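Researcher: Let's try something more involved. This one mixes different molecule types, so please make sure each is placed in the same coordinate frame as the others.
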Amino acid sequence: MAETEPSIFSRIIAGEIPADVVFDSERIIAFRDIAPQAPVHLLVVPKTEQYRDVTELAAGDPELLAELVATAKRLADEHSDGDFRLVFNTGAGAGQTVFHVHAHVLSANGGGHSLQ
Ligand code: 5GP
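Model: All components are placed in one shared frame. Result:
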């Protein structure tokens, strides 16, 4: 992503690209991942494009990071049995492809299934 271009997530937030939005508040949006890696795979995204990854978010706005984690828990409760994996890929070498901080919420659907 060039520094001057909005991230793909900013384009979703702006309504320029469709997404299956499951949560929308003043500072956070969440939508289903386009290529799910688990029965429930949501992306929880601060609307600001200011932070590239979770380390920048933690240093720059810890309250927003806490809000993001609370949102992840709320969504896991709503979409599964409440247990979830919270993943922040950090850096290209770790698989990060979108440099607009986001949390992956990965969960089984409940019903006794568990993540592999
Ligand atoms: P990363 O690899 O940066 O941790 O995660 C980026 C995630 O965004 C990937 O899991 C990818 O499937 C998802 N993704 C990329 N483009 C889109 C899109 O246009 N819509 C949605 N819903 N998810 C996307």
